Amino acid sequence: MFAGENGLQGDPRLKAISDAIGVVPNFPKPGIMFQDITTLLLDHKAFKDTVDIFVDRYRDMNISVVAGVEARGFLFGPSIALAIGAKFVPLRKPKKLPGKVISEKYVLEYGKDCLEMHVGDVNRGERAIIIDDLVATGGTLSAAIRLLERVGAEVVECACVIGLPEFKGQCRLNGKPLYILVEPRQQTN
Fold first, then answer.
1. H/E element holding 34?
2. 17-32 burial by CB neighbour count: b if 16+ within 10 A, else e?
3. What is the pTM of this model?
4. For the segment 121-180, what is each residue's pLDDT rounded down to a tens digit?
5. Active-site residue 127, yes or no?
């Protein structure tokens, strides 16, 4: 579900967020229009508005865990977690977390990868959201859902700043809702 279709129709913050995201053609390979959120981070107001929209959505949903997908989910997740009174749990690439971890492999649009989480970071019955910058095929979010559900968490929703309009992976999210702020821009500034 796009934010603009659910209560935020005409909200000027969404256009400002979209405008603040850079587009890099042919990265990381030919034909990809890379959505660069680092330019969003440089725009204090657009960055704050991004976090505020997520906080407004999740503030009253009894969320106890904000799980951020490495690496760009780490940029939004901690601020959201602090604002809603939840803990932030990093979902990391292999061999980045010390101690005992559980892992979940998945397929990307251009390769394979794996997410890991510390054992004991999330408890059975906790209500969680998963945050990342962009959803393309849904593979990463699906792996994150499986990881959290393996330890007994209830994944309430996945949230991304950007969602590809041709996203076909929602069925891969095992019926979990997906909340997206903006669609990608195709032109560079």
1. strand 33-36
2. bbebbbbeeeeeeeee
3. 0.93
4. 999 999 999 999 999 888 899 999 999 999 999 999 999 999 987 765 555 687 899 999
5. no
Task: Name the active-site residue from 5, 59, 92, 109.
Answer: 109
Is there a contact between 26 and 36 (Cβ–Cβ < 8 Å)? no
Residues 48-102: tens digit of each pLDDT: 999 999 999 999 999 999 999 999 999 999 999 999 999 999 999 999 999 999 9
On whether the 2-182 domain is CATH 3.40.50.2020, my answer is yes
Find the catalytic residue in 72, 104, 116, 126: 72
Residue 160 structure tokens:
């991304």
**Minimal CA–CA distance to 65: which of 128, 147, 159, 118?**
128
What letter would DSSP give residue 4? Answer: G
Q: Is 172 a catalytic residue?
A: no
Q: What residues contact 136, with CB distance under 8 A and at least 6 apart?
A: 109, 164, 167, 169
Beta-bridge mates of residue 104 = 115
In Å, how far are 10, 31, 102 from 144, measured between CA atoms? 32, 27, 11
Q: In the beta sheet, which residues pair with residue 97? A: none
